[in-house]
Each structure stands twice: as structure tokens, then as C-alpha cells.
Amino acid sequence: MCGIVGYIGDKSARSILLNCLRRLEYRGYDSCGIAVAGGSLEVYKDAVRVEELARVAPQLDGTAGIGHTRWATHGEPSPVNAHPHIDCSGKIAVVHNGVINNYQKLNRQLTAEGHSFVSETDTEVISHLIEKYYGGSLERAVEAALGEVDGSYAIIAVMAGDPELVVARKDSPLVIGVSDRENFIASDVPALLDYTNRVIYLEEGDIGVVTKDNIKIRRCGKEVVGQEHKVLWRVEDAQKGGYEHFMLKEIHEQPKVIRDTLGEYISAAEPEARLAMVTEADLEGMLIVACGTSYHAALAGKYILDEVVGIPVVVELAGEFAYFNQISAKTGAIVITQSGETADALKAMKRLKEVGCRVVAITNVVGSTASRLADQTVYTRAGPEISVAATKSFTVQLMVLYWLALSCSSVDIRRVDSLTMGLRQLPGKVQQVLDNEDKIKEYADYLSKCEDVFFIGRGINFPVALEGALKLKEISYIHAEGYAAGELKHGPFALLGANTPVVAIVAQDSAYEAMLTNIKEIKAKGSPLIALADEGDEVVKELADSVITVPRVDPIFSPVVNTVALQLLAYYTAKQRDCPIDFPRNLAKSVTVE
Ligand code: M6R
User: Fold this and answer.
1) Element (H, E) at 166
2) Whether residue 222 is found in the same domain as residue 245
3) Ligand 1 binding pocket includes 369 (Cβ within 6 Å)
């Protein structure tokens, strides 16, 4: 969960590396550093944000270098634990994203051989191993070093007086940005967008040597030509565009990205042909696996597929999936992962493939590891999502699930037509929620003073309650819990009272009456009740202390409008509390460790 970058060309590496790192801070931001190689190697690193490093770092001369922005896993955030890590000679530097499992053993061996370590990190063993094996070729030394290592890595190594960068990956993403007389390396595409949109994604186990004019990649011992892809994301997509935070910008992009994603799949011209891709398999049931916000989209998908397709759907947390044994190859498996790099999701995917399941990935990142592992990939068209809190990626994941459901639907044609029409209206409905922003802000004032909040929903809005609570807790640091409304009386009732507000998500569906009952019960316990309800719902207005209204949609689409309202609520609550909204403490955008 770190960001790594590399540059080699004719320009000064320092400012390019720092600029690339700024774009990667969402992958980790408790410390950062750069190493620039000319005749000698100069390293500057500290437990600060990139902006501060750029302000205080001396002018480092050299046209090749590497950089790192860290989210600590081994050793506290501190200058010595920050990357790059160097060897004893001070000539070799390495940046690493991933985890080296056997680093303690390697550390002991290398120490006995005379190497001295300065940090508590797992990464430092790599620079010392490279030093140990160096016999004139940095590439060979890196290869030999990685042969000793057990774990996951994306690394870039550089050496004083040697105009090349050596790269390697295993279970962590790495991409080469291709340009004229200069090349770039990064753990993530947004880092490169200021410089190039031509990229080569490294495959598992690849080792490469990058110079300013050449890219050499070896795969399974053989030299291969890396396939170049053109990235469609624009630089502006990865910038704030006048918004105070990426999160707010990304919330506001939702009408557009919903339209883009629907345009891709629910095309008026030839829906049948495109939808057929996912209906080939003779399925006994479906399994959806995901983590975090993507898991909440998966849970909503269960209700959508249940209603529209009429097949049994099981949803599992990717991190728990390893502990289940009964998986049938006749299960249609879907893995949802915005980044396409989440370690738990990838592990689950590999296991599903091993047992013979056909796996569809729903991901936002073209060329991501998930897309390469999957039998079929359905891309969401959210553009880069920079804020750690997932927002637009969630709503477009839902779009893909609606499309999947429609493509396998067993409901009558009139229902299909009305659902398709409802989908097309969603960008406008979401815009109406955004237009209500000032009203939602007023509730944020109140919530920002609370320490505990419950979110409740039933049916398809139960996952929305989970997502509303996750959004609030991760960016505002208020303790929040999402519950199925009927479950409160089985324990959490004990916590209700005047200081514990409950946000109730009410849709005009079969759960409506039961939700009204739950609201009354909660009011009787003295908790302030904020309802999220359709405009014109006078009954809820009567019962609740206050109501955030959302535009009326077919209840199956209610998670979309409701979640957008809850995203705004979380955003403004966190803003009121002066929290670092885009980079919440202890969190990173892609979680590439188990
Ligand atoms: O990239 P993924 O969709 O696999 O990420 C899964 C979770 O880490 C992610 O959804 C996380 O929960 C969100 N950033 C929370 O807002």
C-alpha cells in the first residue's frame, strides 16, 4: 500500500519524481523519499507529506531516480524507515511496494555476513541482497536477490553511475510509462498522466531494465516485447478541478460516470450482442466476492440479481473466502474490485480459477491484475478515483450489476423495458441529489458533534446502510455502524438514546411498512431519527425528527440516489470536523496486502 515511481531521461529527475509522487499520495502518505542517481547516489527522505519534502529537499542532480510514498506496515513512519532504502556502500537504492515475509531471517543472515541495517522495514533486505549479488549487472543482482525473497513486491532499483532502472513485480502492480527519450515507472497510472498516456503493464514475475531509450522485459527467463496500451484517462481526471477535495469532485462526477458506464453497456444500438457475453455459462448459481465498498456493491447486487434474474446469489468478503471449502465449478463467479489490485480479492480470484470457476472481474482499472486474471472483465468507467473513500466507483459498480442482471433477466419484457428506462434516468436523478447539497450540509452540522451513529436499512437498502456507515467512519472518524433495521432489537437497542442518532434509509418497496415500525421503535428509545426518504413521503416526515429527501426512483435503483446523499452527508460531516478527507489516517487507496 505504497506508491512507487521511477524516471529516466534527459531532464532533472528530482522534480519529475516529486510530481509523480504527489499524484500517488492516495496510496500512502505517512512518509516519502526520493533517490537520484548521477555519478553518485543522493537520497532524501522523511516522515512528511510530498509537498513538504518538495519544499525542503535539496537540489539533487541526476536524470535518473526513484521515489516512494509510504503507508507504514513494518516500522513506524520515520525518516530511517522511509524509502528509498540503500545498501552498505550507499550506491544502490530500492523502492518497494508489498511485503517481504521472510525479511527477519534474511536480515539475520545478511547481518552475519557483515551487512548493517538501519531501519525496521522488510524492504531494506532487498537493497542488501542486491549488493550481495552484484557482480557487474544490476539486473542479474536484482534477479538473484528476488530469488531469496518470499512475499509480494513491486520494486525499482537504481545504482550510482549506471544509467538504468531495474524493475520487477510479484503480486503488486507496476506500470511503465513510455515516452520519447525518457521513460517512467509507477505503481499506478495516475502518477504518469502528466507525462504520457502510453503504458506497458508488467506481468507477474517480470523483470525489466528501463533506460531512457529502451525497455527490456524478461518473462520466465525469455525476453518479451511489452504490449503498449493507450490510457484514455486525462490529466484533468486526476486533478481536483476546482473542488476542495477529490472526494467532493468524485461525488459530483457521478452523473457523468454513470452515463459513461451505461453508455458502454446499455447501448441503444446493439444491446443484445454485448449482453450475450455474460450469459454463456450454464450456471447453478452466482457468487460475488469483494472487499469494503465493493463488497457493499456486491451485496446490493445480490438483491438485484435475485429480483431480476431469479437465481441464488452468495456474496462473500474476499478476505474470508479462503475459509470456505464448498465451491462448485458451475458457480458463476464475479469479483468486484475498483483498483483491480486488492490482495484479498486477487487471492480469491486465483482460488476460484483453481477450482474451475469462470470468473468475471468488475474493475475500474484497465490492465489491472484482476483484469488479467479474469476470464472476462467488465470495466466500470469511473475514471481515476483518487480519494481514498470510494464514491463514484461504487455507483458505477451498481450500474454494471444492473446491466448484468438485465442481460440474464428472467423477468418479462415490460419490466426489462421499464428497468432500462429507469437506468437511463439515473444520471438526472443523481444530479437532483447533488442539487440538494446545501440542505444535506445542514444535517452534517448536527452529526459532526456526535460520537456514535447508526445507519439502518432493509432489503436492497441494507447494503446502503453499511456503506453510509463506512463512509462516515472512515473520513470523519465518528463511530458508525450499519445494520439491517430488524437487527437493532437483537442487541444494539441497548446503545440507543438521546446521544445516538439513527439514520434510517426508507424506500417505497416491500420493506416500507417494516421500516416504519422500526422507526417508531427507535423513536421510543429516545434516539434522534434522521430519515432518508423519497420526496413526497409525508408518512415518514411525520415520524422522523428530520428528513433528507431523495428523488423518487424505482426502488431497485434506490441504492444509487440514497448512497449519493449519504456520501455528501459523510463528506460535509468530515469537513465540519476538519478531517483530512482525501487521505484518512491509517488508510490507503489500494490494499495490496492481505
Ligand atoms: O479496489 P477495491 O474495490 O478492491 O477496494 C476495496 C476496499 O479497499 C475499498 O472499497 C475501501 O473499502 C474503500 N476505499 C472505502 O471507501
Assistant:
1) strand 162-170
2) no
3) no
Residues 547, 420 share a domain:
no
Q: How far is the CA of 292 from the centre of ligand 1 (A)?
A: 5
Contact 593, 31 (CB under 8 A): no
The residue whose CA has the least distance to atom 11 of ligand 1 is 292
Q: Which triple of cell numbers denotes residue 168?
A: 520487477
Q: Is 1 in the pocket of ligand 1 (CB under 6 A)?
A: no
Is position 473 annotated as part of the catalytic site?
no
Q: Cα(273)–Cα(276) distance, rounded to whole angstroms?
A: 5
Is the shortest distance between the CB of 345 and ligand 1 below 6 Å?
A: yes
Average pLDDT score over residue span 456-468 = 98
- Picking from 401, 434, 467, the residue at the C-terminal end of a domain is 434
Quote the ligand 1 centre to 395 CA distance (angstroms): 13
Same domain, 87 and 224: yes
Nearest to residue 96, comparing CAs of 2, 197, 225? 2
Q: Is 339 in the pocket of ligand 1 (CB under 6 A)?
A: yes
- Using the mean position of ligand 1's atoms as its centre, give its distance from the Cα of residue 575 in Å: 21
**Of 91, 249, 473, 589, catalytic:** 589
- How sure is the predictor about 271, in pLDDT bands with cuts at 50, 70 and 90? very low
Backbone phi, psi, residue 592, to 5°:
-95, 15
Domain containing 445 equals 436-578
In Å, how far from its chain's centre is CA 479? 22
Q: What is the mean pLDDT of residues 227-247?
A: 84
Q: How far is ligand 1, taken at its centre, from the CA of residue 177, in Å?
A: 25
Query: Pairing mode, if any, of strands 376-379 and 358-363?
Result: parallel
What does the buried/exposed string (b/e) look like for 545-556 if buried means 16 or more CB atoms within 10 Å of the residue's CB? eebbbbbbbbbb
Residue 272 confidence (pLDDT) above 60: no
Question: Mutation test of ligand 1: which of 316, 338, 587 has the most ligand atoms closer than 8 Å to its C-beta?
Answer: 338
The confidence score (pLDDT) of residue 28 equals 65
Which ligand 1 atom minimizes the distance to the CA of 345? 4
Active site residue 2: yes
The DSSP code sequence of 368-430 is -HHHHHSSEEEE-------SSS--HHHHHHHHHHHHHHHHT--S-HHHHHHHHHHHHHHHHHH
- Same domain for 226 and 280, yes or no, is no
Question: Which of 184, 209, 231 is the C-terminal boundary of a domain?
Answer: 231
- Report the nearest-CA residue for atom 12 of ligand 1: 292
pLDDT tens for each residue of 97-128: 988 889 999 999 999 999 999 999 999 999 99
CB atoms within 10 A of CB 141: 21
Q: Give residue 181's identity as a one-letter amino acid code.
A: R
The chain-wide mean pLDDT, for the chain, equals 91
Measured between alpha carbons, how far is 458 from 530 in angstroms, rounded to an integer? Answer: 16
Q: How many domains does the chain have?
A: 3
Per-residue confidence band for 367, with pLDDT thresholds at 50, 70 and 90: confident
Residue 315 — very low, low, confident or very high, per pLDDT cuts 50/70/90? very high
